Amino acid sequence: MNGMILSEKHIKKTQKRRRCEWCGEHIEQGDPSMVINAVWDDFQSVRFHPECHDGWSNSKMGLDDEWELHAQERGKPLEKGTL
Ligand SMILES: [Zn+2]
Known about the structure:
- It contains one helix and five strands, in the order βββββα.
- It is mainly beta.
- A three-stranded antiparallel sheet has the order 1-4-5.
- The structure holds zinc ion (ZN).
- Zinc ion binds next to loops.
- Zinc ion (ZN) binds next to loops.
């Protein structure tokens, strides 16, 4: 199964309080966030803190590598093979 990123968008002010998929902490209303729209098994839209998006980008993972939602440290990349 091939994953594909459709879009990455920087939101200056988040409209509604959300949970970051990377670290599991809240993204407060009015704070910046990143939205990734992608197709993995099906269409998905995930929300990250900007620093968690950096952590995700800096993780040495391919698009098809799995990672656990809400289980990473805020802003930190995930080392491959730690799951
Ligand atoms: Zn986060």
